[in-house]
Specification:
The complex is a heterodimer. In chain A, strands 1, 2, 3, 4, 6, 7, 8, 9, 11 and 12 form a 10-stranded mixed β-sheet that branches. In chain A, strands 5-10 form a two-stranded parallel ribbon. By secondary structure, chain A is of the alpha/beta class. Chain A has 14 helices and 12 strands. Chain B is mostly helical. Chain B is globular, with a radius of gyration of 25 Å. The two termini of chain B are 32 Å apart. Classes of the chains: A alpha/beta, B mainly alpha. At the A-B interface, helix 1, strand 1, helix 2 and strand 2 of A face helix 4 and strand 1 of B.
């Protein structure tokens, strides 16, 4: 009896599954972008009275692109631009995409509040601390800067599979994924938060959205780019005016051009690009209004491709990003 | 211990040497009982501490709304509706597949299969499969169900994956229960001219069913808590809708669309909440953990009650 039920179920389901999938918008990708897309999806479904379903997965930026290039998802969340290898993958399967920046995140370098000696840090000091050569040699705070205490240096950072790690290493050591390996790595940012909160000798980097709710128990460092501007603390203001550099990073959503033929996907994107309030609510920094106009235009004209050419770049201001013409 | 005491009282030691030997044996026994009690105590204490910890963190979130709300970006409004419905449906599919296949395989191996190299091979494989890490099943399911059969990240895929995972448990439980049925029962049935299937159907299966049911339910409660293979097949994190209803207004009135709908389950919902930036979600995760724990304990409790009830019916 069970076998017959299953067989009937499979047959019936296969006949019907096509009709129903038209009503579902499938999204996957970065865990950093997840809170933004989730908030938009939640409100969108409420607005449509649940007539349209939106699913959001968390496979990481890379994992998301894999599914996206196989045509399994309509939209892909990404905390960094698409890489060359992923562009090739999409080209192979014939998946065209439109790249739109949706929000800003400020990578926050934080220490324990009991660490009173250190309030600011330069990119050069961060490089000395994190570059591959630091492994086994830069083990105490005074090794980085003689003015700092003679205490062990405990580093916490994102794991190697995350877009956060890629961006931080690119910005600090000059090469994506080039980092010392002897630090406490976790894909789960809350583990890093706890590490920094509990160890007075800790230093770690986390997305701004994770720093903000815990700011009573940790201390963000001012970042000095070394261009004479002096140290700058992360905040909505310093991200928008471009002074919190190079650790502000744009977050992207990639759209499968074929999905744009469906009215519900166009509706969803339209809703997404008017969701600045939701972005602020989930502790990310919305882009200036002009950015969303350009994104709308890109969607309307179906301007495909990426503005980054498949190489990670850091420290770009929002206007620089938007004024570039995407190329496939 | 009382047995040891009464033996001592009834027959006092006859020689000097035997007294010390009995004394020593008694001391060893006391030592063993003490150690065993401490070890058991540690296990129970850890479980109680875990439940108490979850309850302390999560009890404020255990409102009726928590069970009927979809997940939300606002911790206070987020609920586990899609998660518990998803868990239930996945376990349902899992049971519908693993029980008939597992029980049939167990009966075949125990009652019908001859003793040759082929059955020996199957036996070794089944026993080994029980020890394969669950993530390996996820990998298999990703290739086979998600891409091979094109089922995607659906309730059906998850149910089938977990069915594979608990199949060895069901088979082993079936075989042991069937083996425990006294051979005299079978011989008596054969003696009055029953066929092999009649013997199995009328005698072996009814007597073995408490044991089989216990094994099945233990397996299902394991399936309920599994996360790794479902993460592997790409289960989704944010689902704010329920799979399609199994009953609909127009012909043919039943729908199996729900089998092919995206889903989320309790452990994945918990995992998602634990990794959120907003600390308020930690309370949600604790509450969801408590619900999951209660679901698992309830299943196990049901297994025990069911076995006792069925045992009472058996009259040999």
């Amino acid at each position: 009896m069970f076998v017959r039920t299953i067989a009937a179920a499979l047959a019936a389901g296969l006949l019907m599954s096509h009709a129903a999938s038209a009503q579902t918008i499938r999204i996957d990708g970065s865990s950093t972008v997840f809170p933004v897309t989730e908030a938009v999806a939640e409100e969108f479904q409420k607005m449509k009275r649940n007539a349209i379903r939106v699913t959001v997965g968390v496979s990481g930026t890379g994992g998301g692109f894999k599914k996206f290039c196989r045509g399994e998802t309509d939209l892909s969340n990404a905390s960094r631009p698409i890489l060359k290898s992923e562009m090739d993958e999409c080209a192979k399967t014939g998946v065209g995409y439109i790249e739109i920046p949706v929000a800003f995140d400020a990578l926050t370098v934080a220490v324990n509040p009991r660490n009173t000696a250190v309030n600011n840090i330069t990119i050069a000091e961060l490089k000395k601390m994190w570059e591959p050569a630091a492994k086994g040699t830069i083990m105490r705070w005074k090794d980085v800067n003689p003015a700092w205490p003679d205490q062990p240096l405990k580093l916490f950072g994102a794991g190697a599979d995350s877009g956060t790690f890629d961006y931080f290493t690119e910005a600090v050591t000059g090469k994506a994924k080039a980092s010392r390996s002897d630090f406490a790595a976790s894909e789960d940012d809350n583990v890093l938060v706890q590490g920094i909160e509990n160890d007075r000798n800790a230093l770690g980097f986390i997305p701004y959205a994770y720093y903000l709710p815990h700011k009573a128990k940790m201390k963000a460092l001012g970042i000095d780019e070394g261009k004479g501007r002096g140290p700058v603390l992360p905040s909505e203001k310093t991200v928008i005016d471009g002074t919190y550099s190079p650790l502000s990073r744009p977050l992207f959503v990639y759209i499968n051009t074929k999905a744009l033929d469906r009215a519900e996907v166009r509706d969803f994107l339209d809703f997404y690009l008017k969701s600045q309030k939701l972005i602020t609510e989930v502790k990310y920094v919305p882009l200036p209004a002009q950015a969303y106009d350009i994104a709308r235009e890109r969607i309307a004209k179906k301007v495909t491709g990426t503005a980054f050419g498949g190489h990670p770049e850091v420290g770009l201001s929002i206007l620089e990003i938007l004024n570039r013409q995407p190329k496939s | 211990m009382s047995a040891v005491d009464s033996v001592r009282a009834a027959s006092p030691p006859r020689g000097f040497g035997s007294t010390t030997r009995i004394e020593r044996a008694r001391r060893t026994e006391l030592l063993f009982v003490g150690t065993a009690m401490i070890v058991t105590g540690i296990g129970v204490a850890v479980l109680i501490a875990l439940i108490a910890g979850l309850a302390y963190d999560g009890w404020t979130r255990l409102t009726p709304e928590f069970f009927v709300n979809f997940p939300s970006r606002r911790a206070g409004q987020a609920g586990i509706l899609s998660a518990w419905v998803g868990s239930l449906l996945v376990v349902l599919v899992c049971a519908a597949v693993s029980v008939p296949v597992g029980v049939a395989a167990g009966i075949y191996l125990e009652e019908y299969a001859g003793k040759n190299w082929f059955t020996a091979l199957i036996e070794i494989n089944v026993n080994n499969l029980a020890g394969v890490p669950s993530i390996v099943y996820g990998l298999l399911a990703l290739g086979l169900f998600v891409y091979g059969f094109g089922l995607g990240q659906s309730v059906a895929t998850a149910g089938l994956t977990l069915a594979l995972l608990i199949l060895p448990i069901v088979i082993v439980a079936t075989r042991e229960s069937v083996r425990a049925v006294p051979y005299a029962i079978r011989e008596a049935a054969y003696g009055v001219g029953a066929t092999k299937w009649q013997v199995t159907q009328h005698h072996v299966l009814p007597y073995a069913s408490p044991g089989i049911a216990t094994g099945v339910i233990i397996g299902l409660s394991r399936a309920l808590g599994e996360t790794a293979p479902l993460v592997m097949i790409g289960a989704l994190s944010f689902i704010a809708f329920l799979p399609a209803a199994p009953i609909k207004g127009e012909f043919p009135f039943v729908s199996f669309q729900w089998l092919f709908d995206p889903f989320t389950v309790m452990p994945i919902q918990m995992f998602n909440w634990v990794s959120r930036p907003d600390p308020a979600f930690q309370a949600n995760a604790a509450a969801a953990g408590l619900v999951l724990l209660v679901m698992t304990l309830a299943l196990n409790g049901f297994a025990i009650w069911f076995r006792i009830r069925m045992r009472r019916k058996i009259k040999w």
